[in-house]
Amino acid sequence: MARIIGLTGGIASGKSTMAKFFRDKGAAVLNVDAIAHHLSKPRRVLYKIYVQHFGEDILQPDGTLDRRAIGQKVFADKNERQWLNEHTHPILEHVMRQQIACMQRKNFPVIILDVPLLFEAGWDKMTEENCLVFVDEAVQLERLMRRNGYTEAEAQGRIAAQMPLTEKKQRADTFIDNNGSLEDSFSQAEKLWKEWTHAGIS
Ligand code: ADP
């Protein structure tokens, strides 16, 4: 059976970058944001839930969801965030469990759940070990602004809406410090990969 590892970290901490590293090594990676994106296409389950709740304001002229508009509503208002989590998490959990079962049948050595809200959503109950990718807040702010084209205030809002890093650190089992170069982070990831696949044991 594959080991199921949670990969988490704050926004722009470097989760996707590390998930890609592990995928290239041979892991199956389940990305909850990609699942949510897929289910948010017109007429799919999350699309219907969003339109019912927020109204047609959150649609673009071509009928697809305006994810930025939803993001702004949700990040500006804690109650909306709570509503969103309560209505989407059970659906996402169900789909993740189905996909985990499917990956288990395909004999991957490791299945990685690439999930920003791993602890917040309680999805660490599905994993055997949880790896936290972390960066200092100044690095996080700068990478987030650069990647998403956010203003400093927008980026700060996104960071503030998440569980504080100190709490995530207490709940994680293993860590990748991504403050330095990619090369440095990949060498930390390589060590973890060896542990997960037992390739380091002679
Ligand atoms: P997440 O998936 O956690 O939101 P990403 O993996 O997308 O984060 O990384 C955030 C941004 O920072 C991306 O633009 C990525 O290319 C960049 N990045 C990640 N790690 C490093 C690093 N060690 N050095 C420089 N840039 C990095």
Automatic annotation (TrEMBL):
Which Pfam families does this chain map to?
CoaE
Record's catalysed reaction(s)? 3'-dephospho-CoA + ATP = ADP + CoA + H(+)
List, alphabetically, the InterPro entries matched.
Depp_CoAkinase, P-loop_NTPase
> Which top EC class is given?
transferase
- Residues engaged in binding ATP: A12, S13, G14, K15, S16, T17
Q: Which GO terms describe its molecular function?
A: ATP binding; dephospho-CoA kinase activity
Q: Which family does it belong to?
A: Belongs to the CoaE family.
Do you know which HAMAP family this protein is assigned to?
Dephospho_CoA_kinase
Q: What is this protein called?
A: Dephospho-CoA kinase
Species per Swiss-Prot/TrEMBL record? Selenomonas ruminantium
Q: What is the lineage of its organism?
A: Bacteria, Bacillati, Bacillota, Negativicutes, Selenomonadales
- Name the gene that codes for it: coaE
